[in-house]
Amino acid sequence: MSALAIIPFDYGSVAPDLAGRLRKQAERIRERVTQQTKDMIETGRDLAAVKEATAHGTFAAWVEAECGITPRLAQMYMRAAEWSGENAKLISHLQPTAVLKLASKSTPEEVRQTVEERVSRGESVAPRIVDELLRDAREKKKADAVAAEEAALSKRTRESRRLRAERIARERDETHLRYEAKRRASAEACAELAALLVEHLPANALSRARDIFDSGDIPQSQYESGERVVPLVRDMDALREGRPPLPAPSIWIPQPFRSEKIGNAIVFCGDCRDVLPTLYPVGHILTDPPYEARAHKKQIRTHADVASGRRSELGFDAITEPLRTFVTEHAARLSKGWALFFCQSEAVGRWQGAIEASGAKYRGPAIWVKPDSSPQFTGDKPAVNFETMALAWCGGGRSVWNGGGKRGTYTFNTNGRMRDGRHPTEKPVPLLRQLLLDFTNPGDVILDPFVGSGTTGVVAASMGRPFIGIERDPEFFRIACERIETAHSQGPLFADNDNRQAELLPVAPAA
Predict the structure, then answer these.
(1) Measured between alpha carbons, how far is residue 60 from residues 45, 49, 52, 441 in Å?
(2) Which of 133, 180, 312, 321 pairs with 47 at a CA distance of 20 to 30 A?
(3) 448-457: per-residue pLDDT in tens?
(4) In 202-213, which positions are buried (b, 16+ CB within 10 angstroms) versus exposed (e)?
(5) What secondary structure letter does DSSP report for 317?
C-alpha cells in the first residue's frame, strides 16, 4: 500500500450500533469541514475585492481593525481563493489547512496537480498527505539541483571534491579504529584488575571495593564515562561466581563516547574533533564556537569585575585555525542545508575563507544587536553592542530560507527571564528560536558541535526539532542535558509557522 494512502477505518472492529453512530458522526464532521473550506474561499474572494477597491496601505489597517485577522492571514485566504478558481467545488473537499498549504507561493505546481487528480478520483487528501507530497517535491528539487551543480563543475573541481570526501572518510575510519583499540585495551585492563582484586582481597574488602566502583562516585574519563568501571564491576562479579570475564570487543561499536538520549535529542560528551567524523548528515548546523584569542584574554567583563578590580577569562580555549578548518570541512560534509557560526566581527573574513575552502557557499554575515550589552568599562572607546554570524550554505543549488527579503539583523537582549546564566557566552533563547524559524523547517535535525549549556537544544526541544549536541566540558555537558530534559518534559510549546516572530511566542522558564 502507498505511504500516501489513508487506511480505511475497520467498522467491523466495533459493535454494530456503535459503528452506525460513528458513520453518522463522521458524515456530519465532514460536512462541517467542507463548509469551513468553502467559507474560507468565499472570505478570500471578499478580501480580494476589498483590496482591489481600496487605496494602497488602507487594506492592512482595515483588515486588522474591522475583521480581527492579520494581513498575513488575509493574504493566505486570498491566495487560497485565487488558486481554487474554477475548481472551488473540487477543492472544497479538502481541509482548510491543506488548502492553505497548497495555495502557498512556494508549493510546486505538480503538487497541486497531483492533489487535484486524487480529489477528482474521490480519494481523501489529508494535510498529512499534502505535507508528504511537499517533502517529496523538496527532496526532488534538491536532488535535481545537486545533479545540475555537479554537471556544471569542472573536472578539476570534481576531482578536488572527491579527494576531500575520501580524506574525511579516511579520518572517520581512523577515528573508529583508534576507539576500537582504546576499548579493547580498556576491557583487557578491567579484566586484569578484576582478577587481581578477586585473587588478593579478602571477601569483605572485595565487597566494599565492588560497591565503591558501582557507586559512580569515581571520576570518569571525559569521553568514556562509565566505560571502564562498569566492565570492571561486571568482571569482578563473573570471577566471584566462577565464570570467565567477558572478552574484549573485537569490532568497533558505534558512538564510542558518553552520550545522553533525551527524547528526540542526543548529546555527546566529547571533543567535536572526535565526534564529528562518526556522524552522518543532518539538516542544519547552528553553533557558537570559541571566539578569537583576543576575546578570551583576561579583561573586565562585568560590573562585579569593575567593583573588584579583577580581570576574568572565559575559562575555555580560543579557536585555532586548524579547528576552524576542521569544523567547516565537516559542516560542509554533514549539513544538507545551512551552517551558522557565531563569531566576532573581526573574524568574519577568516570564517568566510574557511567556508569557501571547504566547498560550501559563503552567504554573508548576519548581525545580532544587543540593546542591553555591557558598556565599555575602560571608558576609552565605544562599547561593542553586536555580534556576528557567518552564514554557509552546504546544500545543493541555490540557498533557501524562510526569511524572504528581510534583513539579517536580529535585535534581542542578552539577559531576560529565559536566561540560565551558567555559561559565560550563553545566547538568548528568543534569538536562537528566531534563527531556527528563519533557517530550518519542521523535522530538520539540528546539530550544535559546541553545545555549551545547551540553549540550542532547549530551543529545538520547544519547537519539536530533532537535535544533536556535542560538549567536551563534563560540567557544561551535565547542565545541557538537565536543561534539554526539562524542555522535553514540557513538550513542544508551539507549532511551527513560517514567519512568526520568536519573541512573541510563549516560552518555558529556564531550568
Answers:
(1) 16, 13, 12, 28
(2) 133
(3) 999 999 999 9
(4) eeeebeebbeeb
(5) P
pLDDT digits (tens, 9 = 90+) for 311-367: 555 566 788 888 999 999 999 999 999 999 999 989 999 999 999 988 899 999 999
| Beta carbons within 8 Å of 168's beta carbon, 6+ residues apart | 277, 329, 330, 333
What's residue 452's pLDDT? 92
Supply φ then ψ for residue 467, to 5 degrees. Answer: -140, 140
H or E stretch covering 435: helix 429-439
* pLDDT tens string 236-248: 666 667 666 555 4
**Burial track 400-438 (b if 16+ CB lie within 10 A, e otherwise):** bbbeeeeebebebebeeebbbebbebbbbbbbbbbbbbb
What 3-state DSSP class applies to 388? strand
Q: Which letter, b or e, does each residue of 452-473 get, where b requires 16 or more Cβ atoms within 10 Å of its Cβ?
A: bbbbbbbbbbbbbbbbbbbbbb
Which cell goes with 324?
A: 576552524
What SS3 string covers 158-208?
HHHHHHHHHHHHHHHHHHHHHHHHHHHHHHHHHHHHHHHHHHHCCHHHHHH
Burial class from Cβ neighbours inside 10 Å (0-12, 13-18, 19+) for residue 364 reads exposed
Of the candidates 402, 393, 458, the residue with the CA atom closest to the CA atom of residue 430: 458
Q: What is the CA radius of gyration of the chain?
A: 28
SS in 3 state form for 61-125? HHHHHHHCCCHHHHHHHHHHHHHHHHHHHHHCCCCHHHHHHHHCCCCCHHHHHHHHHHHHCCCCC
| 3-class DSSP state of 501 | coil
Query: What value does the mean pLDDT of the chain take?
Result: 79
Distance (Å, whole) CA 197 – CA 228: 15
Q: Nearest 5 degrees, angle CA 449-CA 275-CA 327?
A: 50
Residues in contact with 364: Cβ distance below 8 Å, sequence separation at least 6, in sequence order: 391, 408
Q: Scanning the structure block, which residue is given the C-alpha cell 505546481? A: 109
Strand ranges of the sheet holding 446-448, from the earlier edge strand across to the other edge: 258-262, 265-269, 467-471, 446-448, 284-287, 338-343, 386-393, 361-369, 409-411
In terms of C-beta density within 10 A (0-12 exposed, 13-18 middle, 19 or more buried), how is residue 253 classed? exposed
Find residue 338's DSSP bridge partners.
Answer: 393
**What are residue 368's DSSP bridge partners?**
387, 410
- Helices 203-215 and 229-240 pack at an angle, to 10 degrees, of 150
Is pLDDT larger for residue 461 or for residue 230? 461
Look at the block and give the residue holding cell 533557517: 439
Q: Are 177 and 249 in contact (CB under 8 A)?
A: no
pTM summary value: 0.51
